[in-house]
Write a structure and sequence with these properties.
With 759 residues, this protein is of the alpha+beta class. Helix content is 45%, strand content 28%. The longest helix has 70 residues.
C-alpha cells in the first residue's frame, strides 16, 4: 500500500486528480488480468514442447557421447595390441622365454582382463599359464591372415560359462612372415561397464551386435530386455513411427535413426547410431509417459495459478476502489509529516556535533553537513560519490563494499546501520553510520540521509581485548614461543606475553631467539619468510595471516614446527604483528609417514609405478627444472628362472639387491622406481652427456651380473637397459617409456646384459 500512496502523492497531489488516477489504475488491473491469462496459456504450450525436445536431445547427446567412449575404448586396445605384436622377437613362440616375458609385462598394463599368444597351429598360452588350441576360432583365422581381429561376444574356452570378446593381431618376423598371433580377452561385464547410464532413470543405453543380440545388460528397471535379441523383442512392439523392417534395413546399411514404439501401453522413443565396430549399433531409449505426466502436472499448476491470480486481481481492484478516500487522507497526513521531518533535520544539522550526510542516488552526489575537527571532516560536496570515495582513498576494500551495501539496503529496506573505516589525513577512524531513505511530497527524487558517529576509541579498545584473548589462547594451547612486534619501528614489544623494559629490534630477536634453533636445511627459507619486506608485502589488507613449516632444533632433536605471523591493527598510528611458533611434530610426522607409504613399493622401498609416473611428469612440466635428462628402463634377464629354481623369496632378495645397486649408482635427486615384477625405471634430470654417463651404465650392468647358486643349481642373472633422452624422445612419461622400451627390446634381442640408448 505504501508504494501506491507515494506514487499517487507525487503524481496527483490535488484531490480532484485522485478519481482520474484510480480509474486508470482499475483499467490497468483488468489489462494485467487478461495479459496474465495469455502468458499462462503460452507458457504451458512452450513448456510441453521444451521438455519434449530436451528429452530428444538427451537421446542424441547420450548416444553420441557413449559411442565416442566405446570407439576410444577399442581404439586404445587395438593400438596397444598392435604395438605389442611389433615388439616380439624373431624367436617368437609359446615356449620362448623372451616372448613370455613380453606377454607378462604387457598383461600388467591392464589393457585387457588377460592376454595370450599362439603359434601358427593355434597352440596358445595365456598370461594365466593356461594351454589351449584356438585354431578353429574366427578371430585366430582372421589375425593369421594378417588383419586385426575383433570378435563378437563369444563363450570363453579358458573359462567355460563366461562370455568374452577377443582382439587379436598378427606377430611378424623381420622378413614379414607371420609367426603367430597375440590376443587380449575382455569379459562381457567389462564391455558393459564402459557405458555411462543416464542420470534420468527413464533413459537407458544398449549395445546390439550385427545379429541383433544384446551385448550389454542393464540393472535399469525401465530397460526392455525380456529377450536376448532386439529383432525378437521388436515383434512385441507397437510401432508409432518407423517399422521393424525399416530399422533392419538402416542397420544393415550402417545408418542412424529414430523410432517410436509402445510396450504395454508405455510409449518410448529410441535413437540408434552405428559404432563402426563389427556393425554394432548403440540404442538410446527414453520413456514418453513421464513427459506426458509432467506436462499434465504443469497444466494443473497453470490452472491453479490462473484461479488465484484472478482472485487476487479482483480483490486488489475492489480494495483500490473502496480505499480511495482513505488514501487521500493518508497522502495529506504524510505531507505534513515530511515537513516536520525536514524541520527536525535542519535543527540536527545546526546544533549536533555528529556529522550529517545526504546522498542523492540519481545524481550520485554526497553532501556532508557539520564538522568533526579531530578527524578533519568538514562540510563538503562530493560528486560521482561511489567512484570518488574509492579513488581518493577515503574508503578501501571492505569499507567501500560496506558503503555500497548500505546504500542498497536503504533502497531495499528503507533503513541500514553499519560501522565503517575511513582513511583520513589524521589517520584511520571508525564511524557508526545510520542511514534512512526519505521522500518528499514535492520532490520525486528518493534521498538517503544519515548520521556519522565517531566510534574510533571504542573500536581500538575492542581490538585490544580481542588481541589479548587471541594471544593468551595461542600461548596456553600449543604455542612453543610468541612475540608481538612493530614492523615499521623494527621493535619487539613482547616475548611470550612478557613486555620488554629495553629496546629489542626485530632483527636481533630473530638472530637470538629463532635462527639458532632452525635446521640448516630450512634456514634460508626462514630468513626469507621473516624478512621485513616480505612480511610487509604479504600481510596486506587482504591477507592477515601467513604460515610456513620448518625443523626446530631442541636438545639435539629435530621437531616439526609451524611459524605463523598475524597482522593486528591496534590503532591508526601503529602496525603491530603477532608471531607464533607451534609444535606440530606429531601431526607432521604422521602426515609424512602416510604419504611415504602411499608413494613407495612395499618390497624394495623405491617409488611405485603410479608415484614415479606422477613425479616424472611433474618434473618434465616444471619450467624451472632442467630441460635435458635421461629416462631408463631396466629389466632383469632370466629372472623367471630365479623364481622357478630357487623360489619367490630368493627372487625378492634379488629385487632388493637390484634396488640398492640402483640407489648407489644414481643421485638422491634422481627418481628411481620399481614398475612391477623385475622391471625398474629411473629418470636423471639434467643428465644428457653419454660420454660422461657411459662408464656409469657399464659399471651398473657389471654390478647386476651374477651367478646364483644353491643346492647344486645355478642360474645366471643380468640386466638389460633401454635409454631415452629428454626432450629428443619425448616430454612425458608415456612417450619416454615407449622409446626406452624399444631400446630395451633391441638389447634383449641381440645380447642381453647391456644397455642401449635410442639414437
Amino acid at each position: 500500500m505504501k508504494p501506491l500512496i507515494s506514487f499517487a502523492k507525487k503524481r496527483f497531489g490535488r484531490k480532484h486528480h485522485l478519481k482520474k488516477f484510480f480509474m486508470g489504475y482499475s483499467f490497468m488491473i483488468v489489462f494485467l488480468f487478461l495479459f496474465a491469462i495469455f502468458l499462462l496459456w503460452k507458457f504451458n504450450a512452450a513448456y510441453t514442447s521444451l521438455i519434449t525436445e530436451d528429452k530428444k536431445e538427451l537421446l542424441v547427446n547420450k548416444a553420441q557421447e557413449s559411442a565416442f567412449h566405446i570407439k576410444n575404448f577399442y581404439l586404445t586396445r587395438v593400438n596397444g595390441l598392435q604395438n605389442l605384436a611389433d615388439s616380439f622377437p624373431d624367436s617368437f613362440s609359446t615356449t620362448d622365454s623372451a616372448s613370455l616375458e613380453k606377454l607378462y609385462t604387457a598383461n600388467s598394463m591392464d589393457l585387457f582382463d588377460y592376454m595370450g599368444i599362439a603359434d601358427v597351429n593355434g597352440n596358445a598360452i595365456d598370461s594365466e599359464d593356461r594351454h589351449l588350441n584356438i585354431s578353429q576360432r574366427d578371430y585366430f583365422i582372421q589375425a593369421l591372415s594378417g588383419q586385426i581381429a575383433v570378435s563378437e561376444v563369444i563363450d570363453s574356452m579358458a573359462e567355460p560359462g563366461i562370455q568374452v570378446q577377443i582382439m587379436a593381431a598378427p606377430v611378424r618376423t623381420k622378413d614379414n612372415t607371420i609367426a603367430g598371433i597375440v590376443y587380449g580377452i575382455t569379459d562381457k561385464d567389462s564391455i558393459s561397464a564402459i557405458l555411462n547410464t543416464a542420470d534420468n532413470m527413464d533413459a537407458y543405453l544398449q549395445i546390439v551386435d550385427s545379429n541383433g543380440n544384446y551385448i550389454t545388460s542393464h540393472k535399469n528397471s525401465n530397460a526392455v530386455m525380456n529377450n536376448k535379441n532386439v529383432w525378437k523383442e521388436m515383434e512385441d512392439y507397437t510401432f508409432l513411427k518407423s517399422s521393424r523392417q525399416e530399422i533392419m534395413e538402416n542397420i544393415q546399411n550402417n545408418k542412424s535413426g529414430y523410432f517410436e514404439f509402445s510396450v504395454d501401453g508405455d510409449i518410448r522413443l529410441s535413437y540408434y547410431v552405428p559404432l563402426d565396430i563389427n556393425n554394432w549399433h548403440l540404442y538410446s531409449t527414453i520413456r514418453q509417459t513421464p513427459i506426458l505426466t509432467e506436462s499434465r502436472k504443469v497444466q494443473n499448476m497453470v490452472n491453479q495459478m490462473f484461479f488465484w491470480i484472478s482472485a487476487l486481481l479482483a480483490l486488489i481492484l475492489v480494495l483500490v476502489l473502496c480505499m480511495q478516500e482513505r488514501i487521500r487522507a493518508r497522502i495529506l497526513f504524510e505531507h505534513d509529516e515530511a515537513i516536520k521531518n525536514e524541520h527536525m533535520l535542519r535543527i540536527a544539522i545546526e546544533y549536533s556535533k555528529t556529522m550529517v550526510f545526504e546522498y542523492k542516488a540519481r545524481e550520485d552526489i554526497l553532501n556532508m553537513h557539520g564538522s568533526l575537527p579531530d578527524s578533519n571532516l568538514h562540510p563538503c560536496r562530493i560528486e560521482n560519490a561511489l567512484e570518488t570515495l574509492g579513488t581518493s582513498g577515503i574508503m578501501k576494500d571492505s569499507s567501500l563494499k560496506d558503503f555500497h551495501q548500505l546504500i542498497q539496503e536503504v533502497k531495499d529496506q528503507g533503513f541500514s546501520r553499519k560501522i565503517m573505516k575511513f582513511h583520513l589525513k589524521n589517520g584511520d577512524f571508525w564511524f557508526r553510520v545510520i542511514a534512512k531513505q526519505t521522500d518528499s511530497a514535492y520532490d520525486t527524487e528518493q534521498r538517503t540521509v544519515g548520521l556519522l558517529e565517531d566510534v574510533t576509541e571504542n573500536m581500538i579498545q575492542k581490538q585490544e581485548i580481542q588481541l589479548q584473548n587471541q594471544l593468551q589462547k595461542a600461548l596456553f594451547e600449543k604455542a612453543r614461543s610468541s612475540a608481538k612486534f612493530q614492523l615499521k619501528k623494527n621493535q619487539i614489544l613482547e616475548i611470550n606475553q612478557e613486555k620488554l623494559s629495553e629496546f629489542l629490534s626485530f632483527e636481533s630477536y630473530k638472530e637470538k631467539y629463532i635462527f639458532p634453533f632452525v635446521s640448516e636445511d630450512y634456514l634460508e627459507i626462514m630468513r626469507h619468510f621473516l624478512h621485513r619486506e616480505y612480511l610487509a608485502e604479504e600481510l596486506n589488507t587482504a591477507n592477515r595471516k601467513i604460515r610456513t613449516e620448518f625443523l626446530f632444533i631442541q636438545d639435539t632433536q629435530l621437531l616439526w614446527t609451524s611459524c605463523e605471523v598475524y597482522k593486528l591493527e591496534l590503532n591508526k598510528a601503529q602496525d603491530t604483528y603477532l608471531l607464533l611458533l607451534n609444535d606440530i611434530d606429531t601431526e607432521k610426522r604422521q602426515e609424512l609417514e602416510l604419504r611415504e607409504r602411499a608413494e613407495r613399493d612395499g618390497l624394495t622401498g623405491l617409488y611405485n609405478a603410479r608415484t614415479a609416473k606422477m613425479k616424472i611428469n611433474q618434473l618434465l612440466a616444471d619450467k624451472t627444472a632442467p630441460e635435458n635428462g635421461l629416462f631408463l628402463i631396466l629389466d632383469l634377464d632370466n629372472f623367471k628362472q630365479i623364481n622357478d629354481t630357487f623360489g619367490h623369496l630368493y627372487g625378492d632378495r634379488i629385487l632388493n639387491d637390484t634396488a640398492q645397486i640402483l640407489q648407489k649408482h644414481f643421485r638422491k635427486t634422481d627418481i628411481i622406481a620399481r614398475l612391477g615384477g623385475d622391471e625398474f625405471t629411473a629418470y636423471l634430470p639434467g643428465a644428457h652427456n653419454f660420454e660422461h654417463m657411459a662408464p656409469i651404465f657399464d659399471h651398473l650392468v657389471m654390478q647386476l651380473y651374477r651367478t646364483c647358486e644353491e643346492n647344486g643349481k645355478k642360474v645366471t642373472i643380468s640386466a638389460s637397459i633401454g635409454i631415452a633422452s629428454v626432450p629428443e624422445h619425448g616430454t612425458c612419461f608415456e612417450q619416454l617409456y615407449f622409446q626406452a622400451d624399444h631400446a630395451l627390446y633391441q638389447v634383449k634381442e641381440t645380447q642381453k646384459n647391456g644397455w642401449k640408448a635410442q639414437p
